[in-house]
Amino acid sequence: MGIKFDEIGYWSEVKLDIIKEYATAYSTIMSRQPAIRAYYYVDAFAGAGIHISKTTRQPVPGSPVNALRIKPPFTAHYFIDLDGAKVDVLRRLAKGYPNAQIYEGDCNPILRDRLLPQIRFKLYRRALCVLDPYGLHLDWDVIYMAGQSRAVEVFLNFPVMDMNMNILWTCPDKVDREQITRMNRFWGDDSWRNAAYTKTPGLWEMIDEKNPNEAVAEAFRQRLKDVAGFKYVPSPIPMRNSRGSTVYYLFFASPNETGAKIVRDVFTKYKDRRA
Predict the structure, then answer these.
(1) In Å, what is the CA distance from 134 to each residue of 95, 109, 210, 233, 248?
(2) What φ, ψ does residue 9 adopt, rounded to 5°?
(3) Burial level of 135, CB count in 10 A (0-12/13-18/19+)?
(4) Rounded to whole angstroms, how far apart are CA atoms 49 and 79?
(5) DSSP 121
(6) Whether 78 contacts 115, CB under 8 Å
(7) Which has the closest alpha carbon to 268: 242, 243, 236?
(8) What is the pLDDT along the chain (275 residues), one digit of tens a residue?
(9) 20, HSE (Cβ side, Cα atoms, 13 Å)
(10) Which CATH number, 3.40.1080.10, 3.40.1190.20, 3.30.1340.30, 3.40.50.150, labels domain 7-159+221-271?
(11) Residue 91 region, left (φ>0) first, then alpha (ψ -120 to 50), else beta?
């Protein structure tokens, strides 16, 4: 189709399975709620809808294609991507699904200004939102808006590898200001410093000692609850590369206990799997 499809590893395939399994359960539950007027599937970094497996070299359906195939179907699907070539492919794959709407552009203003304002608790509208950026490309105000709505559940990529490579250095004073701005936008403010570093006595003064990834992820989990307002945020599942290093954490956040319980069970099923 004129583009190079993204190649994904084993844990990315696991992530797709997790989201598909939960989205199927979510749609089934919502379809049985007579008070719910509409429920949506929102993918903010949708891509082309197809990936290539690094393991098998075969095509792998992406999150949008999996969502379109779910029965009972969502009321509508909203897919967003910044890459015009990938959007073109996704439009072809979604042809024949009149309830699929595809947006080309930055997902942050599209979610903040156009989509999330429609998904309101008092209007009996709900949504499952997949926020799966490759790096620190998501703004906190979008996460906050979803949490405050009490109508949105999210799967969220917490990109700890990007953080470690560009921001969470052993010597934080040497980090470029532009990188710090990226982190502040994702976290919402600069309180990530308290999660990322612990003050310890040095030879002449107190120095910053970097905390492990798990501590940073746990601080963000608490922030999703205490600041964004999601009532239920299970412990995330780490997603690894071929060397076993954690590339990112997959979070789930929800206003509903039922959704959290299902996801805990799903995370438990997948977390110890090996390629």
Answers:
(1) 26, 18, 23, 21, 9
(2) -90, -175
(3) middle
(4) 10
(5) G
(6) yes
(7) 236
(8) 568 899 999 999 999 999 999 999 999 999 999 999 999 999 999 999 999 999 999 999 999 999 999 999 999 999 999 999 999 999 999 999 999 999 999 999 999 999 999 999 999 999 999 999 989 999 999 999 999 999 999 999 999 999 999 999 988 889 999 999 999 999 999 999 999 999 877 645 656 889 999 999 999 999 999 999 999 999 999 998 878 889 999 999 999 999 999 999 999 998 876 55
(9) 18
(10) 3.40.50.150
(11) alpha
C-beta of residue 147 within 8 angstroms of C-beta of residue 228: yes
Cα separation, 257 vs 269, whole angstroms: 19
Backbone angles phi, psi at 249, to 5 degrees: -110, 135
d(CA 158, CA 195) in angstroms, rounded, equals: 14
Q: Where do runs of H (alpha helix) occur along the chain? A: 10-31, 63-68, 84-93, 107-109, 140-149, 160-166, 177-187, 192-196, 213-223, 257-271
Q: What is the pTM (predicted TM-score) of this model?
A: 0.94
